[in-house]
Every structure is written in C-alpha cells, then in structure tokens.
Design goal:
By secondary structure, the chain is mainly α. 78% of the residues lie in helices and 0% in strands.
C-alpha cells in the first residue's frame, strides 16, 4: 500500500530527527568516557588506555555480533582499512596533544575537526555545504573557543599534534559517511578497533599495565561500554547526516563534559560555559531550523 503524503512527511521528519538523536547520544557517552579516562591512575599509559578501548572493543564486537555477520568481509576493504588507520592516528594524536597542552587548548584544536570534514567531504565525496551552513559551523567553533577560554599555549609539538588530530578526525568522519550506505555501524567500528589494536599492540606489550583493583576493572568495563556505545551511535548517525554536520552535533560533547565536571568534579559554571554553550547549541538549532 502506497503511503499518503502526510505519512511520507512523517517518515521523512522521523529520519531527519534520527541523525541529531544518535549524535547527541554518542556525544553524551563520549563525555562519560572522558570522565572515566580521567579517573584512570597516572600509572596507565596512552597505550594501555588504547588497548582497553580498541582491543577490548574488538573482542566485545566479535562476541556480540560475530556470530550473525562476517566482520572480516567488508564490501569496501580498502576504504574501511584506511578509515581504521585515520581514526587511529586521530585518537593517538589527540591523546598526545592532551599530554603536551593544557586540556582546554587541546580540545579546541581537536574540535575544529568539523571544519576539516567540511573541506574533505566536498573534495573527496561530493557533499555540498552552503554559506548558511558554514556560518552555523563557524558559530559553533567560536562557542568552543569561548567555552574553554582559548589561548595558544603549550609546546609547538603539542599544537601540531592537536591540528593533526583534527585533520584526521575530519577525514575519518567523512569516510564513515561514505561507508554507511554499504556497511553496518558494527563493521565500521570493528575495523577501527582491529587496526588500532595492531598499531598499539607492541608499544603496549613493552610494559603492559593490567588492572588489579576491583575499582580499576570497573573503570575499564565502563570505558568498554561507553566507547562501544558511543562509536556505534555515531556511526549510525552518519546514515542520516552529512559528515561535517555530524561533527557539528558532536561538539555538544564539550557541553556534556562541562556539565559532568560541574556535577561530579566540583567545577564551577562560569559565564564562558553559558555563552559558549549557547553558541554551540544555538548553531545546531539554527541549522536544524533551516533543514526541518
């Protein structure tokens, strides 16, 4: 039975709403993931955290989904392997930037990635972006700078790695958008875990840090759950939004992170939080009003 015009409009409106819903859910889980990583003791290295997230994530995906879909036979193996490599580079560059820069500076550098996605997507995959959409994107980037009281601080190497992380994150989300029509969220994330595990395995094995306390195991379990959930939701969201658009929605992670800091870490909500948050969410709202 052919749907009526009203039914078609409802179907379209539901599809439009799914993109932001998945992205905001992903951003929230990534914010919790950040809190859990902060709770890890100083004895845990970048390689340890990477192996918990990526190696453990790959095992979880195999256990949950390996029996009903062949995760080792992607339709576009070349692109999905490249996506795994760029995602791994983005992750390691971000962590390196955080180690060499003030946290706020590193976050502002990294969350410029929607701008790079807006550059890569038209050049590589033919996505369109209008002047109005560019204005919304710029407003969100300004909001991030206000939220974190942005100053160029830290080592030149740290600043360079922050930019590298943003560039590769922008390239990664563009490739996720390209892969989504033919690949499930699970297989896209699985190859990120697989490639990342291969890259991080030998540095991790040089001095592996295995949790001993029950509290550390709970944190590791939380890292696995939130990282898998966040990544799958983000990959699902790219089925309904453009690459840079999804990145714009993902900037809400910074708002969620700040709220978590206020509620659980005793941080104070300054005027920067309210102005920066208004600019970020205002730009998202303005974008959606234009595309409803």
């Amino acid at each position: 039975m052919t749907p009526t015009m009203t039914e078609r409009k409802i179907i379209v409106s539901h599809a439009i709403a799914k993109g932001p819903m998945f992205m905001f859910g992903s951003a929230f889980l990534f914010a919790i993931l950040g809190l859990l990583i902060k709770m890890m003791g100083p004895d845990y290295r970048v390689w340890d955290i990477a192996m918990y997230r990526l190696g453990g994530g790959g095992i979880v995906l195999l256990a949950l989904f390996g029996w009903k879909q062949n995760l080792f036979k992607p339709q576009n193996p070349k692109l999905i392997i490249i996506r795994g490599m760029t995602g791994t580079i983005a992750f390691l560059a971000l962590v390196t930037a955080i180690r060499n820069l003030p946290f706020s500076t590193a976050m502002v550098f990294f969350y410029s990635f929607p701008a790079f996605a807006a550059i890569f997507a038209p050049l590589l995959f033919g996505e369109r972006i209008t002047l109005y959409e560019i204005v919304c994107l710029i407003a969100a980037l300004i909001g991030i700078g206000v939220l974190f009281d942005f100053h160029i601080q830290g080592t030149l190497f740290g600043q360079f790695m922050g930019v590298v992380g943003a560039i590769f994150a922008g390239l990664t989300v563009s490739m996720i958008k390209k892969l989504r029509p033919t690949h499930s969220s699970v297989i896209i994330y699985f190859y990120f875990c697989l490639i990342g595990t291969v890259v991080c395995f030998w540095p991790y094995m040089s001095a592996p840090r295995i949790p001993t306390a029950a509290s550390d195991w709970l944190i590791v379990a939380g890292i696995l759950i939130t990282s898998v959930g966040a990544q799958l939701l983000m990959n699902m969201g790219f089925r309904y939004c453009k690459s840079w658009e999804g990145g714009l929605f993902m900037t809400s992670e910074l708002i969620f992170s700040t709220v978590i800091g206020i509620l659980f870490l005793g941080e104070i909500a300054s005027w920067r939080f309210w102005i920066g948050g208004l600019l970020i969410f205002g730009s998202v709202a303005a974008f959606k009003l234009q595309h409803r």
